[in-house]
Specification:
Four copies of one chain form a homotetramer. In chain A, 32% of the residues lie in helices and 22% in strands. Chain A has 358 residues and is an alpha/beta fold. Chain A folds into two domains: 164 residues, Rossmann fold; 178 residues, Dihydrodipicolinate Reductase, domain 2, CATH 3.30.360. In chain A, the strands form three sheets. Chain A has a six-stranded parallel β-sheet with strand order 3-2-1-4-5-6, with helices on both faces. In chain A, strands 10-7-11-14-13-12 form a six-stranded mixed β-sheet. Chain A has a two-stranded antiparallel sheet with strand order 8-9. In chain A, α1 packs across α13 and α7 runs parallel beside α9. Chain A is globular, with a radius of gyration of 20 Å. The C terminus of chain A is likely disordered. The interface between C and D is large, with 41 and 41 residues.
């Protein structure tokens, strides 16, 4: 199979770097263009990028000259790790020019014609992309905290029905990007507030778990209350969750549906798909971010301590890798699924894509 | 006023050290005896104690020879910072010998004739001490996480009624004593489990907020669900809390009752009493353990982010200093209140105390 | 004694806040004016300051309207916690207008007519202030890492002579101010570089330990090599030091001269003077920043593990509180000493101070 | 090639677990036996091991029944991750029975007939193993801090001669094993002492860099002074180093010899050999443990900030992964080199090995 050329928008940022790291040696895609703000454009990537990944900067991008986000691009698929302050109109412009924008930014998530996709959960929402107003299209993934909650809720919702969710998060510093949280604010500390995060968890989750009816999504009917905290953890968001169910279920029944859960990425054996989307832990003190966040290459949600809740029905601990499955890895899996389910072909046949030859 | 001689049981441990630090220059009490396990007994305190406090070891205890917990003691009041593995029978023995044991250990908290006291909340439960089977008596304070929850619930319960409590804790490492949590388990990590802690929060809270009827306490009628996590914070337990109320109340009304709350320690201007038992924060990112845990010398509960909860009625963040108001400071304030409300006098008149001349 | 009005320059920054916290209830000085950059000026302090101290913001400054650093000031003494990017010309301007600028900024430290003062070590260097070109004057304290090294070297230099110093630092994040070090750079990490820090240690130390000859200082003759690292510690710089001595000395002899060391602040019983400038530890694992940095209210240098060095003569561990004795506390002690040794009176008599009536 | 059966001694400990993780899918060796203290023996590994690695426990060991360290073993090569309190006589016993013990324990390192091997540096010292008094043999690797110092010194020593070494370490908590350092001692702290560590660095380094003359090693002639600190870093020992050289060399010359350095593991393309034993960093703030410790799979020493030293000649920062190249990975590379250089064959031919059929 010939590889598809892709661009990374916001290539110097935390999420952009993670896109580059995860796309190295990818069987479907190769990084063809790096895009950043005009002030970084025209310079070699290695000279403008403060590389923060554990691995070395891939040789094939180090000398690539960074393009500006107001230039025309030639790649078909654009992975966007842009900051939300700039992402909105730029992503829209590129979608209008015929590109498929696979975005991690929050800006278009709640647009009525843009889906928030978790391919194991709601790959049918990809249909919306074919009906968007753009020559190309926009796909988003959820906020990082929402991701793991929605992944775990999905099979429980299907099997037993969920009417109420209470979630308290303990989120990693890498979720705030770089420079992000000053060390004087978080070393040995908890910050009991993350701007906009609680609202995202309370709204995005219902859209992801919602039902596509014609051109719009009917939100899932459930009440969600989120309390978000920042803790001195590098990678990995931990969530203490309680659920109210329509149909009672024992912890063992919950564990069974979580462990049995799979979706199109697993059926299609996609390159970034974890063998199991949800890893269930039976030890009483797991999952833990510093121990478990890299299990299944950071692409699974982890769930443990599944037990009865005196207030609602079931409580548990959820964990996931916020910059992998919670950000760049999610977008890449979205693109893989979009391609392999035939949506990319359908999108290109929708009308002649004006720009992209990749 | 002549000072009352006191002993510290478990004097070499984390809580025992905190008793010693907080009792330095105390206007009512002076440390007269230090008690530890038989293997430390007979040695000078400075030679057996691995002192972990910020302040210097007080000169008056450094050369004191440690007594064994199987010896007779001469002090009237015994502050117990003993480990729960040993505390049960030893505290009982000393109570039988006529001492007033003011304990931070969990062992006797749920005894039907022993109160768990927060003097601003349930000082009337001190009556139980006069009816105990002991020649002396046993008073306990709650578990550290329970303390701050119960302090904040008390005025809300009184004003509006609380039927449901959902709480997720993020607890400091000092709560596990020394050596306690291995650094490899907690550096940059969250441990989503603390043995026995959730059960304590779910039971002790109801006893503290319960009603003394005759000789026993009727538990407060409320449903509590606790999820307890350890985080890499030195001192200070943070709690994300949601409450279901019998009578609806706005965040402003909740803040008003919390700020107006006082009790006997404030009315009696006791030496360890904070000016306000509850400090209300109006900034959206406070309270924080590393910033706020020492406010009011660590003797107040802090509450902030008081706002509506989509699932229950009100949600908020609670914080307190787990080894001060959550442990040694709580016990000392219990003793001060017991003395100044006349209970110590009443207890001594109950019958001739056989041992203690202090 | 009537209190002297003082202003705090850079009042909203980390060092400025520490000045305000330490000057609360000061017996000689009261905070009369708060000065910050023009963009903060004209607003109440509590509205522009992101207060990061453990204690509450003092009520007497909370409502004070912040002045701009280009305004005239009325206070006699100006404590400068300004950022070095702005401090240079502003401090000079105020000195020209007759104020005594007691500065923590690096800008004028190496000026030939400005002393770097540690009052226990080189209070005779205050003489330089009377001969400065300013109507008022400028006094500086050293860089925070230099402070503790120079304090410990001073008595050893005097007793035995020091020809060589090798020092490796492990410095706290609070030394970089706020927002300072991003948490993603330092959580669970060591950064083996602090810009300009090694040079400061290698030059300032020799000036402090130098000899005033006429109008200039002859640097102390010693070779210094510094290696500076940032570590995930909140407050307290730890330094591993090796010394080459002119006259051999045993560890016990070194400890004796360190413990006997005092200076004018101790002789004059100044309010901010620690009882002992140097605290000697004999345990093999002390001093430690999280345990010992607040000993003597953060105003002493701590020294421990004093033992022979196979390469040079003596090695040891040094520790001090970088924002107290290493910054704001140092400047305040400088001002106290300057006043009580009669220098302020002499400076004001030098010629009629044109501006300051305080 | 048929794989050689190996046993892991101390299989439940931190280093033992790392052996198991690193030996998974090893092309030369397979884990045939797990050995632990008698109290763990007779139980399945997954039931006695508190697995702390990031990866899952390999399926092939999970159900293996643990053997006791007083049983006979059948594997030819025994990797010892035993605690030093027990390792001495047990390793000796197995060596007497004909096994090759490849040990990370300190007990036999300084035995006159046992080499401390870094295969890039002193593989000729393997000759000593053939002359040991044992039917089998004992090979050791150095202490973790010594490892990275000796690796970096070796090529500099060869090219320019080193007469003096001054080193200050900042060591990770994983170096102390589990439970190891209590979190209350190290969170936000520096402990300026690690028992025995300074002595090991000062003695082992000279043995590794020494010359084999007949049956004994002549220590390298250099003076070493070490100061060892524990810092709140999970993995990775950082070292600030100054060197005195016999022949002057510029930083560029030093970097050139470090980058050119290779040895038998590279020449033989051994499975655990890093492409380059020493990674040179030219950025001014690298290497850093949290960023660089996994470069080259944790098997290289990292060196950076190579610059002139005012006291000695050259100073630099060294970093390495203490539990990989500093422990289990070192031992495995030692075994690989021993096998591929023909020493294992020679050892077995020395006399008929009585026990081991592997």
């Amino acid at each position: 199979m010939e590889k598809t050329p892709v661009a990374v928008l916001g290539a110097t940022g935390t999420v952009g770097q993670k896109f580059i790291a995860l796309l190295q040696n990818h069987p479907y895609f190769y990084v063809n263009e790096l895009v950043a703000s005009p002030k970084s454009a025209g310079t070699r990537y290695k000279e403008v990028c403060n590389w923060k990944q554990d691995s070395f900067m891939p040789a094939e991008v180090a000398d690539m000259v960074v393009k500006s986000s107001d230039e025309d691009l030639e790649s078909l698929i654009l992975f966007s790790g842009m900051d939300s302050q700039a992402a909105g109109p730029i992503e829209e412009t590129y979608a209008n020019r015929g590109h498929l924008v696979v975005s991690n930014a929050k800006n278009h998530r709640m647009d009525p014609d843009v889906p928030i996709i978790i391919p194991e959960v709601n790959s049918d929402h990809f249909d919306m992309v074919l009906r968007q107003k753009y020559a190309g299209g926009i796909i988003t993934n959820s906020n990082c905290s929402t991701m793991f909650l929605a992944m775990v809720l999905a099979p429980i919702q299907k099997a037993f029905g969920v009417h109420t969710v209470h979630v308290t998060t303990m989120q990693a510093i890498s979720g705030a990007g770089y420079p992000g949280v000053p060390s004087m604010d978080i070393l040995g500390n908890v910050i009991p507030f993350i701007g906009g995060e609680e609202e995202k968890m309370e709204t995005e989750t219902k859209k992801i778990l919602g039902t596509l009816r014609g051109e719009t999504i009917l939100d899932a009917e459930m009440t969600i209350s989120a309390q978000c905290n920042r803790v001195p953890v590098f990678d990995g968001h931990t969530e203490s969750v309680s659920l109210g169910l329509h149909e009672k279920a024992s912890p063992e029944e919950i564990m069974a549906v979580l462990e049995a859960f799979t979706g199109p990425p697993q059926e299609l054996s996609l390159p970034s798909a974890p063998e199991k989307p949800i890893l269930v832990f039976r030890e009483d003190n797991r999952p833990q971010p510093a121990r478990d966040v890299w299990k299944n290459a950071g692409m699974s949600a982890c769930a443990g301590r599944i037990r009865p809740c005196p207030v609602l029905d079931i409580k548990m601990v959820i964990l996931g890798h916020n910059t992998v499955r919670g950000a760049a890895g999610a977008a890449i899996l979205n693109a893989e699924t979009f391609v392999e389910m035939g949506y990319l072909k359908a999108l290109r046949e929708k009308d002649s894509l004006p720009v992209c030859s990749g």
